[in-house]
Amino acid sequence: MSRTIACISTPLGTGAISIIRVSGEKCLEIAKKVFFCKNKDNIQPRVLNLGDFVYKGITDKCLMAYFKSPLSYTGEDMVEFQCHGGEFLAENILKSLLENGAVLAENGEFSKRAFLNGKLSLDKAEGIIDVINATSEAELRAGYKLLKGELKNQVIELQNRLTTALAEIEVTLDYPEYDDEEEAKVEVKGVLKETLTTVQKLLSTAKTGKIVKNGINIAIVGKPNVGKSSLLNALLGENRAIVTNIAGTTRDTITETINFAGMKFNFIDTAGIRESDDVVEKIGIERSRDAINEADVVLVVLDNSTKLDEEDKKLIALTENRNRIFVLNKTDLGNTLKFENEDVVEISALRHENIEAIKQKIFDKVIDKKMDMSGLVLTNLRQIDNLKLSETALKDAISKCDTESADIVAFLVRNVWNELGKITGETETEAVVDEIFSKFCLGK
Predict the structure, then answer these.
(1) Residues 360 and 427 in one domain
(2) Are 200 and 219 in a shared domain?
(3) 291 vs 306: CA distance, rounded Å
(4) Were 241 and a residue from 229, 331, 405, 434 both cysteine, which residue would form a disulfide, CB within 3.0 to 4.6 Å?
(5) For the segment 406-438, what is each residue's pLDDT rounded down to a tens digit?
(6) Does residue 444 belong to any structural domain of this protein?
(7) Which domain holds residue 400?
(8) Closest C-alpha among 23, 51, 14 to residue 36
(9) What's the pLDDT score for residue 86?
(10) Would you say residue 443 lies in a domain?
């Protein structure tokens, strides 16, 4: 008999309600020791029961719902209490449940039990983590696609194709006198090629997925006093960076994040790049160079009211091989600079003119327009790694269909099937499963 676990599932602190979960064979028996309602002896599943929680002089009017196995989140019998929000009250309800036979749940134990009871696949569990941790619309959408099982469904479909192909080739091993081994291998090779195409299509979303997960890193660079900090403030819509007419005001990088078109934009305001004898400023300039190398997009800010000088020209050369956009600032003072075959946006950071055009230009420059952002986008490194291993196994199997015997080909097809099964958790190791659920919060 598995232990009955309990935990607070809502964040601790003052709020409208707190939720305490209990899961396991004895959950209802334990709940009845501290919860009293009119129909206490005939509590029906999936019904909210209004009653009183009573424990050592503490009373609360609260709700209790009972979910009978297997129609629950964990697949076991479950009880959920909804009490008035408050750290002291929720902790005392939990304490009462523990004193009456439950044990404190580990991180992610409710979801792990759901996985072990076949209610949740490993990729869907990772979708839950992504939905909880999402800080942008794109992240939330990607997590929800996983949670809905879109990746799981595709993996199962691929595995089903491989199972059919495997059956075809194993017939030739069992009845060699009736079936043509070479013909079977040709059919299997065709299925493997189709599977490889699908796997590679999924992997093609990983680049965008990385951006969805981490956001677009944008370095704002330029010589001192061209308006980098003013531009950052305009992009954020608030006065985050100090702006003065003194050259070298920004000594270190400043990073701030906004959301645009559902994506995270991480703007890095950098120290002005120039020759300097100031020790602190030199460190800031070196960090500016690092920001250029690490950024997805570089905004090269230039003063549009004057001609290019040597510092400007050095900066243009420094960013020549980077994914850059020329931001010609101070158009309120003049319009001097012209660039051919470059992405250019003319602005006035002071007047907040044309700022939205910069954001749109960044989005268009980074996000592949061929990518269906409403579709499944891979953001999880474990899933991506498993798909890469599946791709390698597929290529190996395809290359050996023409040279190896049917039993070797069958072994290679099973290997592909197992690699794909790691994505959903069907063939993943226990250590990996434990590691994934350890990332969940308590009560989830």
Answers:
(1) no
(2) no
(3) 26
(4) 229
(5) 889 989 999 999 999 999 998 888 888 888 888
(6) no
(7) 123-205+377-437
(8) 51
(9) 82
(10) no
